[in-house]
Amino acid sequence: MSETRKISITVNNKTYDETVPVRVTLADFLRHQLGLTGTHLGCEHGVCGACTILFDGHSARSCLMLAVQADGHQLLTIEGIAPDDKTLHPLQEAFRDNHGLQCGFCTPGILTTLLELLRDNPSPTEAEVRIAISGNLCRCTGYQNIVAAALDAAGRLRAQKPAP
Amino acid sequence: MKPPHFSYHDPRTTAEAVGLLSTLENAKLLAGGQSLMPMLNMRFVLPDHVIDLNRVDGLSYISEHGDTLDIGAMTRQRDIEFSGVVKKKCPLMHEAIAHVGHRQTRNRGTLGGSLCHLDPSAELVSVAAALDAKVSVAGKNGTRSIDFANFPVAYMTPAIELDEMLTAVSFPCWPAGHGYAFVEFARRHGDFAIVSAAVLIEEDAIGKITRASLTLGGMGPAPVRARDIERALIGEKPDEKRLHEICETLRSVDAVDDIHAPASYRQQLATVLPRRALLKAHQRLVGEASA
After folding, report:
1. What ipTM was estimated for this complex?
2. Closest partner residue to A113 among B4, B54, B104, by Cβ?
């Protein structure tokens, strides 16, 4: 029998009290137990970045964490990015407008990664964007439109919140 | 690609963690998880017990004691990257850490985890070798200190007993105004280096090298301190032609052949990267002195 633990975890501002097998990764827990399938699993060994989430505000690969480790912590997944059901986040709008995705598999990990970047560095250079997404593999776009979307999103977010 | 079955332990103190280590058979310590978790997912390791250190108090800190920087084993690579003290006292570590994985992995990965995993081309491993770090290890009979030169005993095998754990690392920093550089060659940004070079130098008033540390990562099972070159550099003025001659002798350093590169390619890098690092270190030292 698999050893289990009770955990309490806040995902996208909603608190879940769940019992999990201790060996289950955070990514599998989010997808299979909470039904939050927006977090994608590509490689399951920390290379592709598709499963990136924000863990207490910092990007992390959810395939490289156990669900039990998230007990008492705050998570943000792709499902929690948009302000409401009808409005896209400016980052999402920028990706749509710049054709920053094709198949969309890597997109959740790229958006969560960029959310952290643009929070910590509202005016990144192109080189800084490329370094930020260097741990996210995309097999469709050649990254060009992802970088364009990220820079566009930075501008939109700055316009939303003018510098003091 | 799912972790195997294991029992999970999350101790709150170092004593509790060491106690678990000395009583449980086939236990693995889980630090930042950026190496152990992939190994669990791929079932390269099959521990009966996983002891998670993430809730242990008092293992995450960066503190300055005179010329020494003490860093707790569970200090995240992210915290080292953004530490003003590290940047000021130990700019080599600050430069090296930018090459460690990606933002997502540095947010979780720890200093102690990286040193104990002991990948031969891991940047922090090279930095520890370059600075003659001392590693503090706790066991059921108390703590002991290991000179980093004696820390790697074999490929990815640290000189830590099965019932011991790394708790802190002490880095003796070089005096302000020294030259430093960390350069590496990797196929992709964030990959482990094929070969890396970590350099520290001091020069006298007329620009002759008085002290040097040169570490090659990725050549063999552990970082190599090029002691002969460090001695040969004393009294030299670091111009490109002279450094070219001196670094050419690094071609004879033993290197491994593997899927990433043949030994001869690593040996070629071993002549080029240290030269670039030494020049960069010298330029920084001169720049600092004239600033």
Report:
1. 0.95
2. B104
